[in-house]
Amino acid sequence: MSGFRNAMPSSAPRKAYALNQSPLFRLRGKGRFEDVIGVKWESVTDLLAAESFRVWKGPKDREIQAPIHWMAAVHKVIADLLARIEVPDYVFSQKGRSYADNARQHLGNHPVIKTDINKFYPSVTRAMVFRMFVRDFECAADVADRLADICCYRQLHLPTGSPLSGRVAFFAARGLFEDIAKLAVASGCKLTIYVDDIALSGPNATKRLLGEVRMLIARHGLKSKGKKSATFAAGAPKSVTGAVIVG
Q1: Cβ atoms of residues 100 and 242 within 8 Å
Q2: Residue 49 lies in a domain
Q3: pLDDT value of position 10
Q4: 169 burial via Cβ count (<10 Å: 0-12, 13-18, 19+)
Q5: Does any domain span residue 187?
Q6: Is pLDDT above 90 for 3?
Q7: Does 6 reside within a domain?
Q8: pLDDT at residue 146 greater than cutoff 90
Q9: Would residue 75 count as lying in a domain?
Q10: What pLDDT score does 6 carry?
Q11: Nearest to 31 by CA among 55, 60, 54, 7
């Protein structure tokens, strides 16, 4: 790990800020990259060439790709920086909130619809991550190129077991989530998102609205799971992110 140094001391206060206040925003120049990420510019090649991920089969034969050693330390730096950026209130996959908090938003005598994005992290490609750093974070192209390589498993897609994947996936697919949020407002529904789990509740949470949400997901180049797309009647028990709502 000769090319790595801690960019963000653990004692630094964790204060939330807008995206344009992040050290990652408009990150340009090799020196600035080294200061923020903690990796020497010329050492990125070594970082990517190393055996940087542990891969194994998880529940339901799902492949888990977790960064290890030097890559794990770098991913933690980036994850910590991203975690400090403010996200919309409908995002419940963030520190201080839980699956139960997410489900609790949909309490009440009204219908609920839900769906989720199929293989969300593997569907977020390196091209999407690069585009996110250029478009949303306004990084220089060469810096965005380095960051996309570091964030992605074998420079292909987001890893399924990294601490940075959740927040990178959100920003990479932010256009989709913003479109769903607009649809929720127009329909008078409450929206929550927990990583890839999407739930809406309210009088107009109908099968038709669920179809519109799924079409939005497809329009953004992603897929929703048919088996996990469901509608719940107002008086029925409702399962949202693993928690059952009754009443």
Answers
A1: no
A2: yes
A3: 44
A4: buried
A5: yes
A6: no
A7: no
A8: yes
A9: yes
A10: 58
A11: 7
The domain containing residue 33 runs over which residues? 19-245
Closest listed residue to residue 150, CA positions, set 40, 24, 45 = 45
Give the Cα separation of 214 and 224 in Å (integer): 6
* Rounded Cα gap, residues 201 and 127, in angstroms: 33
End-to-end CA distance of the chain: 54
CB 169 within 8 A of CB 175: no
Count of domains observed in the chain:
1
Half-sphere exposure of 227 (CA within 13 A, CB side): 1
DSSP string over the chain = -TTB--SS-TTS----B-GGGSTTTT--SHHHHHHHH-B-GGGHHHHHHS--EEEEE-GGG-EEEEE-HHHHHHHHHHHHHHHTB---TTB-SSTT--HHHHHHTT-SSS-EEEEEBTTHHHHSBHHHHHHHHHHTS---HHHHHHHHHHHSBTTTB--TT-TTHHHHHHHHTHHHHHHHHHHHHHHT-EEEEETTEEEEESTT--HHHHHHHHHHHHHTT--B-STT-EEE-TTS-EEETTEEE--
pLDDT at 11 over 70: no
| pTM of this structure | 0.90
The overall average pLDDT reported for the chain is 93
**Residue 223's closest CA among 119, 131, 114, 93?**
119
